[in-house]
Ion transporter
Amino acid sequence: MNKKTNHKTWKDQLHGIIYEADTPIGKIFDVVLLILIVLSIVFVMLESVKGLHDSLYTFLYYGEWVITVFFTFEYIARIITIKKPSKYVFSFYGIIDLLSTLPLYLSFFITGTSALLAVRALRLLRVFRILKISRYIGESNRLAKAIRDSGAKILVFLFAVIVLCIIMGTVMYLVEGEQSGFRSIPLSVYWCIVTMTTVGYGDIAPVTPLGQLIAAMIMVVGYGIIAVPTGIVSAEYASGQKPKKINLNTQVCSNCHTSDHKDGAKFCHKCGEDLHNE
Amino acid sequence: MNKKTNHKTWKDQLHGIIYEADTPIGKIFDVVLLILIVLSIVFVMLESVKGLHDSLYTFLYYGEWVITVFFTFEYIARIITIKKPSKYVFSFYGIIDLLSTLPLYLSFFITGTSALLAVRALRLLRVFRILKISRYIGESNRLAKAIRDSGAKILVFLFAVIVLCIIMGTVMYLVEGEQSGFRSIPLSVYWCIVTMTTVGYGDIAPVTPLGQLIAAMIMVVGYGIIAVPTGIVSAEYASGQKPKKINLNTQVCSNCHTSDHKDGAKFCHKCGEDLHNE
Amino acid sequence: MNKKTNHKTWKDQLHGIIYEADTPIGKIFDVVLLILIVLSIVFVMLESVKGLHDSLYTFLYYGEWVITVFFTFEYIARIITIKKPSKYVFSFYGIIDLLSTLPLYLSFFITGTSALLAVRALRLLRVFRILKISRYIGESNRLAKAIRDSGAKILVFLFAVIVLCIIMGTVMYLVEGEQSGFRSIPLSVYWCIVTMTTVGYGDIAPVTPLGQLIAAMIMVVGYGIIAVPTGIVSAEYASGQKPKKINLNTQVCSNCHTSDHKDGAKFCHKCGEDLHNE
Amino acid sequence: MNKKTNHKTWKDQLHGIIYEADTPIGKIFDVVLLILIVLSIVFVMLESVKGLHDSLYTFLYYGEWVITVFFTFEYIARIITIKKPSKYVFSFYGIIDLLSTLPLYLSFFITGTSALLAVRALRLLRVFRILKISRYIGESNRLAKAIRDSGAKILVFLFAVIVLCIIMGTVMYLVEGEQSGFRSIPLSVYWCIVTMTTVGYGDIAPVTPLGQLIAAMIMVVGYGIIAVPTGIVSAEYASGQKPKKINLNTQVCSNCHTSDHKDGAKFCHKCGEDLHNE
């Protein structure tokens, strides 16, 4: 029994370092992890740039491999230190972590997949967990709430905008024709979206007077309706109450992956597992 | 009399399937209709794309005809199953339905009219009727109210913007002249609208230092006044009360096309016609 | 004395027709005036378009002259039917009316001045006077109040934006240099304004990686601060009370050009002049 | 002792002129200073313009030197008239003032540094001190508060937008490839930021149908989320109380550089130094 307890302690310690950020070592681990994530994103980006010195490519190549191997060990450690691995594997971060590691291995078999490593950018969202500054978490909760509350309304709005774009795109296709760059209806609808959202690349632009008149009308309408989603979010956000006090404890149960424990809790409130904080 | 009642039942059953979405068959009919609308819009769009395989054009051509014939039968069914067809024919959806069917027949006589089938996109608005999710309908009602309330103000605002664009467009025409692309006053006014709405294609752009100075001033002003309609809608939306409980019943009277019946109503509250729900 | 009264009546009647819009003839006069203003703006715009048929230019030329002669008579009539002409001549509309008539006469001496006729667009603002729909006037009053209240704040904000644009423009000039189109500091500042306001013509765009990184930062900052003026106007507008009931009377005193009379007033509340309404 | 008092008076008088704006001479000094700042910025900008007459460059060169010498004397005067120079030297304006003077001297040793004089634009912010119009200062305080309060939330938001841009930029790099101008992942991320912020230069634009579809989705999403920071600032600004009465006194203690004295105060409230106002 002694040995088993010992073994359990080793796993539990690793669990605390990897999953939690309350102890100094846990915090250092998370900061190192974040730096490696940022580095690996920079590596993936730089590798796609042409015209750099060959030795840099070699450095990037090996750097990427070192980081990926580290991520692989981290992923395995996350699985073995938790009692119910499926809880982690199928969680949001579990899937992101797998997708961040796999592409480089796949690149042996399929060319170009290494660019998929950009999905690692999603791992950056862990930064909010480490910062643990209540206002950041509180605000993003409140923001998320306002966006969720506005969601249905903004979807209704965007749906109406897209119906409008299909109709006006077709009108512009008929008015301008192919010699102005409006080569097909889907392309005209694309142009209409580019215009309504005020992006305005200018790769396609109306040339005939009638087309320019209609385009001007589309812009003025777009200018008028850009106000609508803004107004919705403003009103929704203003009416939203301050979210309740947020629990900043980062302990995670090594048995069931439950994470919202109270400060000073000694046992998991869900499965009764020892949380191993002394 | 027996036969007449029988005949009435047949029409009434069809009326229930086509106009209402409360029964399983009525719902299936509406979903199939929506899929066909989306398909027909995709067909019209794809047909305008050049460079596809010939067999695809043949498929699109026949597909469009099959859908149009279905829409034609649906339109006729909608007319014969209602007692006062004029109520439907001159309603918003009645006109849209006709305009969605006619262009393909017209394309025998006039070339190019088949592109007008894009008006079918408006039929997509039926989707809100099928979804019948109260928050969607409620929100779009509240949104519509906020936009209607803001309408007069935003019109005053857009009118002032257009007067400003006419004057600044003329000034830019005088300052920049034809060699910079400001070839006429209407074109300069068009450029001014493109700039004020922050679309900025770049097909016409000031070249002289004075022109660029004036353009910079127009942009800063446009940047400042883009706030106005947004502010109006925000304030209007925030002050709007939640709309009253919405009636989600989709029954439509087969005699007078009235649609806002109470759940469980057995007779039309307007003309007394039997609503045929058991 | 009889004759003098008669003479006064003639002037007073004309005054009523020209300045007021409460009588049928006064309303017809204002509508005809508005149509002529719109027509003359269209004429001036069309005249600048190249490649039209010669006979159209001839028509435009004579049409413009006919309208200008009418405007000249109207301007003279406005002066002689008022007892203190200086009250009208130096009012906002008095100056606009003069500037709308003069350029065509000046075009005999100086070429190109006829384009200045676009200032006539400002005369279109009279439309609000004719519409006399209380909500339009009320709304534009409330809007004007919100904009006036926000003015000082938005000026502070725009001043800070311009200081930022000068500094970032200089940085981009140093980073990108002349071969990328950033040919001088003023041009770089112009580019920075084009970018910050999200217009983005694309006639000048960063080419070097460092320049693009800085440009991306400018855009994200611009994206973040576009929220500021919008927020100001929203808050200001929302907090503004509904303006008091608006006086829709359009009577104007023929002696002192005072215009805010009560309905049914028989004498000017400022100078005691007879308002001649029976 | 008499002489020492005299000497002190001379320094104190200069201190009053340079640092304060309550006396007529102090106000004139500040206005002259502002004009010189504006002039020197115009000089630096014009000097970068090619194709001007040679004599103008000579004029600009000497003009810049005259102003810089004046600024040098002003900087020295600011240091010697204050008892604790370090209080000024390391204040915000102290650093700006040094950075505004140094580059021209450095241009003897390093070419191109004279363009750094654009940092002088920051000195323009002194204008708010001279205007001393309470509403300007009050408003900028309230604005600053709203922006500071929104800061954390907007940072969370911008962070999420950048993560989204990295991922979508990589997707576009894979979809569009190099022949469409998406030459590397960093460039694609740059394009994604240009698009999301609705700037849309058009120097890089998707060409393939799939790329255009994804681009359209990015735009619609960008259009929807542009509402978020606006909503935050609006709500924050609307909920902000009016700032307390602002102290418009411009006296600055010649000993400890403290500036928020009450009107009519005779001694510094922090160090007890005589403020020398009679």
User: Anything to note?
Assistant: The CA atoms of residues 154 and 229 of chain D lie 6 Å apart. Chain D touches chain B at residues 198-202, 230-231, 234 (CB under 8 Å). The two ends of chain D are 21 Å apart (CA to CA).
